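(Deposited chain)
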Amino acid sequence: MIDAPTGQIAAALALQFRLQQTERIPKEQRKIIQNRSIDKLLNHALKTVPYYQDHPQIQAMQGEIEWMSLPILTREILQKNTGRLLSTAPPDNHGQHYEFKSSGSTGRPVKTYSSDYAQLFWRAITVREHLWADRNFAGRMATIKYFGDGKHKYPGVKQTSWGQSTQTLGYQAEMAILNSSESLERQYDWLTETQPDYLLTYPSNLQELARIHLHKKRSISLKNISTLGENLSPEVRALVHQAFRCKISDMYSSQEVGYMALQCPKHDHYHVQSENCIVEILNEDNQPCRPGEIGRVIVTTLQNYVMPLIRYEIGDYAIPGHGCDCGIQLPVIQRIIGRTRNLLTYPDGRKSWPSYNPMALMDIFKDARFQLVQTTLNDITLHVQTTQAITQDIEEKATSIIQTAMGHPFNILIQATKNIQRAPSGKYEEFKSEILNQKTEV
């Protein structure tokens, strides 16, 4: 006997049904629905959020709100105006409020607030991600993520559901959790002991596990891998497919916004989660990029009425794409590049995502981890976590690989290190720039 769903279950099912409709509707119809959401959000922000009420750029519009003329909200402005970005009258039916902190690699925290209503969309899109990846909700899930308080150390913990998103819908299946602060060797041992169907972890973590697996080749029955939190490069995708012979499904999200894009069920590109947010990719003149052009990611939250973030410059770069033949009509992001601090700057001022051919470096540095740091316009340091002696011949080969991949004769300094540190969030950056000036805005 099946009972009729009520309460949270009914709401979750109804939202899933709605999402499966909106992902397939034509662009013109979706634009009408999205414009209604924008009008509703702007009306709320202009009536109840001091930052938007008092902003001179908005006041100068005299009631004629032009979207492309709305001010862009940077991370620095958000940090300085946290209190003034809070609504003085959030909707009563949006439920309890929650505080989130995101520090990134700079150590300067960003504090934002959300609600039960916005979290409902977070959980619904989590289920959408499972559906797009074609996972069996009865399968075994493993999660390797960072827990700063030292929780979930080996042998990890187990729970009877994949989380609240699937539990609300009535699904019960085992999930095993391990702290990514454990050594990679121990993580690999844990995976072979746990034998999950599905794995969720960071791309950098996955890259190292793939390297170990190619060496040890123990039995692991992974059917699908999900990644989050870091840039997923084509090189890592290729390495993981070679090692585990299964698909990767990447997610693009943040604490401040929630889900921004999910990987297409059919291709490696991404579909914007338009029911949750608006994503603009703008060039240096603040105009929309054409497909194939690199631009800054600007996001507007559509479901957070506690702290509306309108045209928030999240700090990432991405490349918009063309339409998709998978049947999903949501906008396409061809590739997510990463943070501003992860862009290579050439001496002539050009910026690009750094290509340094890690697969070739792996051939000369066995079982090593790499991090490149651009210290000046002409100088890059390659930190190599290895126990291997770095000879002059190896230095010359590595230098040639990097210079060829980057298309410029940068001065390459190679340094051996015992440990390449992760950021406080547990994330790992393969490339960092130390020369980019921080913006100063008021």
